[in-house]
Amino acid sequence: MTTLWDTTGSAVVKELAAQRRTGGAVLSGVALTLVVVADENRVAEAEEAATAAAEQHPCRLLIVVRRQIEAPAPRLDAEVLIGGRLGPGEAVVMRMYGRLALHAESVVLPLLAADAPVVTWWHGTPPDQLCTDALAVIADRRITDSSMAEDQFAALRARAEDYAPGDTDLAWTRSTPWRSTLTSSVDAVSGRRGEAVRVLGGRVEGDPGSATALLLAGWLSARCGCEIPVVSGEKRPGPSGVSAVALDLDQDEQVRVQADRRGGAVISQPYRPEAMVALPDRQLGDLIGEELRRLDPDEPFAEALESTTGIPDLAYRSPVREYVWFDPAEENAGSGGATLPAVPPDSEGTDDVAQQGVDDPDQGARDAGQTVP
Question: Which of 50, 146, 260, 366 is an S-S bond match for 155, by CB 3.0 to 4.6 Å?
Answer without folding.
Answer: 146
